[in-house]
Design brief:
Elements: H1 5-10, E1 32-34, E2 38-39, E3 43-48, H2 54-67, E4 84-88, H3 93-106, H4 111-114, E5 118-122, E6 131-133, E7 139-141, H5 143-156, E8 160-164, H6 177-192, E9 197-202, H7 224-228, E10 231-237, H8 240-246, H9 250-253, E11 256-264, E12 273-281, E13 287-294, H10 305-314, H11 330-337, H12 354-369, E14 373-379, E15 385-391
Parallel strand pairs: 3-9, 3-10, 4-5, 4-8, 8-9
Antiparallel strand pairs: 1-2, 6-7, 10-11, 11-12, 12-13, 14-15
C-alpha cells in the first residue's frame, strides 16, 4: 500500500536523523570531466542563440572527451579518454556526420583515436521525449524513455552525454516552472545519476530592443531550468564595442564568440574565453563551420624591459602628458618610436585605429600600476593644471606581464 507524506508523518513513520558533521577530508571531491563545465553526477546547460557555435562547441568537446584531450587547446584530460555521447533532435544523421568529419579534419583526428568511445546520434526522425503532457495538461515523465536512456548509458559506461537542443526532448510547457523542474531533475537528473555528466543545449528568449548579449537569466522559458542545473554558460557574438577596441572589423566580429560561465554553483564564476568560427571544406565539397580557440591579443606582445627603460629616460624631462587627447600624450611618441609595438605611424595625431589607442593606454596603465611610471600634476605653458608622466621605479624593479598572459587591468572593454 502506498502512503502519502502526510500519512507517514501521522503514522510516525517518517523520521530524519540529526546532521552528522563529516571530516572535510573524507568528503569526495567533485569530479570534473572536461574543463569547468562537465561534472560527473550533475546536469549543466549551454545557452545561446542560433549561430553562436554552441552546438559545434559542444560536439567538439564530446569528441575531445572520447579522444582524451581538449581539441582546441591540445591539453590532455586528467581523466584520460572518456566515453561520450551526443544526441541531437534537430539535425538528420547526414548533417551530424558532416560536422563530425569537419571537426576531425580540423583537429587531425582519426576514427581510431576515439577507440569506439564516441556516439553521435540523430533523434529527429525517431524522437526521444523524456516528458510529455498528461491528460490534464500537466507534465508526466516518460519512465520507459528515461529508464531506457539511463540503462543504455549504464550499459555503454557513458561518462558524459549532451542533449541538443533541450526543447526537442520533451513536449511539456517550457514556461512552467513545475514542468521544467521535473524535466531537468526527474528526467535528465536521473539519467545523469552518479555516473555521468549531462549537458543541456538550450536557447535564450528573444532579447529586448537595445540588448545585444545573452546572460544565463535570459534562458528561454521557466527559471526552474537555471535553478535545476549545476553549471551554466552562455555563448555570445563579440559586441561592436569589443570589436572596435580590439581592432577587429565589423564583418569579422560575428566570427568571434565569447563563452561565459554565468552560473557555477561548485565554485567561483570562471573567466570568459573565446572561440572563432572557421570553415572546413570536406572532400565532398561541403563547407562546415568549426569552433577553434581564439585568444585576445596581449597589449605587451613584443614589448621588452628595454622599451620601458627608453620610456623612463624620455619622461625624465616631464614633457609628456597622461591625457590621450593631448598632442603631447606619451602614447603618441611610443607609437612612432618603439618598433616592437608594430603600430603604424599615426594619422592626424592619432594611431591607426581605436584598438591601438586602447593598447597604448593598457601598456601605460600597467606601467603605472607597477610603479614603473608615475603621474605628476603641474601647470602647463598656459598655467593650467595638467597631468604629466614622470619616472617611477627603475625598470629592473618593476614587472612586465609575460606575453600571452595579460592581467585583468590591461584590457578594459567598455
Amino acid at each position: 500500500m502506498d502512503f502519502t507524506t502526510e500519512e507517514f508523518v501521522e503514522a510516525g513513520r517518517l523520521d530524519f536523523e540529526p546532521y552528522v558533521f563529516p571530516d572535510p577530508k573524507s568528503i569526495a571531491p567533485r569530479e570534473w570531466l572536461f574543463g569547468r563545465h562537465y561534472i560527473r553526477s550533475a546536469v549543466s546547460a549551454s545557452i545561446g542563440a542560433p549561430g553562436r557555435l554552441k552546438s559545434t562547441t559542444v560536439l567538439t568537446e564530446i569528441i575531445g572527451m572520447a579522444v582524451g584531450r581538449d581539441l582546441m587547446t591540445g591539453e590532455r584530460l586528467t581523466s584520460g579518454p572518456l566515453r561520450s555521447a551526443y544526441f541531437n533532435g534537430e539535425e538528420v544523421q547526414d548533417e551530424l556526420d558532416r560536422r563530425v568529419a569537419a571537426i576531425c579534419q580540423r583537429f587531425d583526428i582519426r576514427p581510431e583515436d576515439c577507440g569506439g568511445r564516441l556516439w553521435v546520434v540523430s533523434t529527429r526522425d525517431k524522437p526521444l521525449k523524456v516528458a510529455v503532457r498528461g491528460p490534464r495538461g500537466d507534465a508526466v515523465v516518460q519512465s520507459e524513455v528515461v529508464q531506457g536512456l539511463r540503462a543504455w548509458c549504464d550499459r555503454r559506461h557513458i561518462d558524459a552525454a549532451a542533449i541538443d537542443p533541450l526543447i526537442s526532448f520533451h513536449t511539456v510547457r517550457e514556461t512552467d516552472n513545475g514542468d521544467m523542474d521535473l524535466v531537468c531533475k526527474e528526467a535528465f537528473g536521473a539519467i545523469a545519476g552518479k555516473a555521468r555528466a549531462v549537458d543541456l543545449v538550450h536557447h535564450p528568449r528573444k532579447l529586448a530592443p537595445g540588448e545585444s548579449t545573452t546572460t544565463v537569466d535570459d534562458a528561454r522559458g521557466a527559471s526552474a531550468i537555471l535553478g535545476a542545473v549545476r553549471v551554466a554558460r552562455t555563448f555570445n557574438f563579440m559586441t561592436t564595442g569589443e570589436a572596435t577596441q580590439l581592432g577587429i572589423h565589423d564583418d569579422e566580429r560575428r566570427r568571434h564568440v565569447r563563452i561565459d560561465n554565468g552560473k557555477n554553483n561548485p565554485g567561483p564564476i570562471g573567466k570568459a574565453h573565446w572561440v572563432r568560427i572557421e570553415t572546413e571544406i570536406l572532400p565532398n565539397g561541403d563547407e562546415v563551420a568549426c569552433a577553434t580557440l581564439w585568444k585576445m591579443p596581449n597589449p605587451f606582445d613584443g614589448v621588452t624591459a628595454a622599451d620601458l627603460r627608453v620610456v623612463q629616460r624620455l619622461v625624465q624631462g616631464g614633457a609628456f602628458r597622461a591625457d590621450s587627447q593631448s598632442k603631447q600624450w606619451l602614447g603618441w611618441w611610443m607609437a612612432e618610436n618603439l618598433p616592437h609595438l608594430n603600430i603604424k605611424t599615426r594619422h592626424s595625431d592619432r594611431p591607426r585605429d581605436k584598438a591601438e589607442v586602447t593598447r597604448l593606454n593598457s601598456i601605460l596603465k600597467t606601467w603605472l600600476k607597477n610603479q614603473a611610471l608615475d603621474i605628476e600634476t603641474r601647470q602647463d605653458e598656459h598655467r593650467k593644471p595638467r597631468d604629466f608622466f614622470v619616472v617611477g621605479k627603475a625598470a629592473e624593479a618593476s614587472t612586465t606581464p609575460p606575453a600571452g598572459e595579460p592581467d585583468d587591468d590591461q584590457i578594459i572593454l567598455q
